[in-house]
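Problem: given the chain below (276 residues), write out its structure.
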Amino acid sequence: MCKKENGIYNLEESIKSYLNTIKTSIAFNTGFKGADYHIGGINKGDFVVLGGVLGIGKTSFALSAAYNIALSGGKVCWFSTYETKEMIVSRLLSQLTRKKRIQLPRMVVDPKQIDELICKLKKFREIKDRFLICDHPLMSVGSIARCLDSNNQPDLVVIDNLYSIEKERDAFVDELYDLAKSRNIAVMLTVNLKYDPLLAREGHKPRISDLARVSEYAVNLADTIIFLHRDCWWTMNDPNHTGEDDDIIVARSRRGEVATIPAKFDRECRRWDEKD
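Solution.
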């Protein structure tokens, strides 16, 4: 394609460029079919923000998505600001076996359950070189970039959680966005939303304005914004709220559309699933 001297393309040239971009881009599915449909999957270069109040299940959702992307052939690098690699693996095993994390040690010594655990571990072997975990405290995006330099470049980087970045959060978000775009890798960032504004709202469902209270840069820069909502979480804290809905809320999608996807959260094994 020949570029015009003034930097302007005609429509035919623009269409060809767009189709070429589609051919070379790879969309990874998170395993949540409804969400994938509305966001178009997670593409290289995407900056995805996953928000919700503390304890709603953001890490659980992100872990399921990252695991499914690794299973489908993508390479994932998980950065935790507050959990060790052993805690992260126990979370994942709990989801896969649908057992409480406290039950996992019993499975190791129970002959009736050891086969189930071994079966799940076989899937771990399939992705052992495609799911990397860094549990050192993060100080800067530069430290993340240096870690990535020492490994083959991943398709997805997960940062869990912005809450642990105490200073200059907007600068951190801005640099994460630049990392995603400059290296053409997807970045998913989990963000704790403030409790009080949602408590005061009928239904307690999160909105983009709630994310802005934490980081305006996250709102301005995100290609995709997903919120998680569980009625029962609020029931525990608000006796007047009696709903039973769990939702995956696509609040922004550059390539798709906003949507609320009915879901179910298993509190025993901390696992999200979409409703049929």
